[in-house]
Amino acid sequence: QVHMxxxxxxxxxxxxxxxxxxxxxxxxxxxxxxxxxxxxxxxxRELVASISSRGSTNYADSVKGRFTISRENAIKTVYLQMSxxxxxxxxxxxxxxxxxGDFYWGQGTQVTVSS
Length: 115
What we know:
Layout: E1 3-7, E2 10-12, E3 18-25, E4 31-39, E5 46-51, E6 57-59, E7 67-72, E8 77-82, E9 91-99, E10 103-105, E11 109-113
Parallel strand pairs: 2-11
Antiparallel strand pairs: 1-3, 3-8, 4-5, 4-9, 5-6, 7-8, 9-10, 9-11
């Protein structure tokens, strides 16, 4: 019923930029926090950035100063602007939304940073 559709992944060279988008579709009463996670093969999933309904943000130390998370509540969309990308940013990125008593995940989008 509730789906989160991600887009914006791709292949970029180190130092490049990408913007990820994730839109919530379906019926949801309230979206509290939204965030982006990433996972590389054989590695743990990690929180990249999160944003509250009022706009308070939190970033992993590894991306602070390079990534910016934002959201548009009217269209239930969360974004991740990624700049100065590094090879270690390569991973599948998943968006997440936390509602009242439930949570949702996007399907994942591949980000590859390589020369």
